[in-house]
Design brief:
InterPro entries: Bact_Lucif_Oxidored, Luciferase-like_dom, Luciferase-like_sf. The chain is an alpha/beta fold. The protein has one domain: Luciferase-like domain (TIM Barrel, Alpha-Beta Barrel), CATH 3.20.20. Helix content is about 40%, strand content about 15%. An eight-stranded parallel beta barrel has the order 1-2-3-4-7-8-9-12, surrounded by six helices. It has a two-stranded antiparallel ribbon with strand order 5-6.
Length: about 375
Amino acid sequence: MKFALFSLVMNIPNAVTGQMLTTQQKFQNIVQQAMLAEQLGFDAYGIGERHGPPFLSASPPVLLTAIAARTNAIRLLTTVTVLSVLDPVRVAEDYATLDHLSGGRFEMIIGKGNDPRHYPLFGITEEEQWDSLAERYALLKRLWSEEQVTWAGKYRPPLNEVTVLPKPYQPQIPVWHGSASSPLSTELAARYGEPIFSSNSFHPMAKYKALIDHYRVRLEHYGHDPSQAIVGAGAGSLYLADTREEAIERYRPYYNAFHSTDSAKHNQSPFTSLEDNLANGPILVGSPDSVVEKILKYHEAYGHQVLSISVDGLTETEQREQIERFAKEVAPILRKEIPSTVWSRPPVQGVVQAPSLSPSPSPSSSKAGSESVLRV
């Protein structure tokens, strides 16, 4: 199994200390977090996209470019790019530029997003989100691969013999399809024969498994081999301690704070408590052994090769503690237990030597970085 650390750049008062970082401090925290993830052997670092409080992640390509300049090998993801509301011309330009500046380490996860506040900001209705996503993605693929593109559609003005520059540094930027709530996203991924990344954050396993199973069925329909399907999955939040009881006690204030935000209320979690989520949901809170056991249980259902985790909202000391403990006590076991064909070779080219963060000694498990051959 491979591992991605990601952030939605959520900035709220800390549930334990009451302190809140300034915007500048939060951005610096994210860059430092990504640097630490690289040094500890994570395979990828991701930035989500949100357009409203409490998130500061409105411009993932800008933030990922800052991270690219401070790292050398770790892959850079969008988790996700809300392509349903964005201009494909702008997306093509921004992310091809990032691909060059990162030396070919960029991979995109596209989706319609799960926060309805962005639709009125960008001039579409929530009902249009799926059609908009499909149309914009088809255009984006052409803009990255063709010259003199002539195109007409519903969600942006027509193009007449347009060549968008720069073209990506990689021969083809790998694209994953975010999957959270509808078979329309898995249908789009299957049509193109591209991998999916299950949100796996807010609901019981059965909901996400049904979408992943649908993806495999539809891959076969479109002439792709479902046995070669590539799936990634999230895991909700992470909190490790020596015992399950200690982890629950330490994490409970954070859980309560996260679930009182407007964005969390929109997701309408079916879980009635932290204990309910632990028993029936994807959250990873407990001892290292119990977290490994839970991840293996979800892998049996999903067959995913990549796992993403987040430490959003914790104090900076706890962020470091959790990232280090996961890298040392959880990741090495899962790397051995679960084979992964994803990122099996280095990225195209590293370009910047990352400065030392001097973290605690990193695990002896595999180093970050590898080529993304993601087509099924």
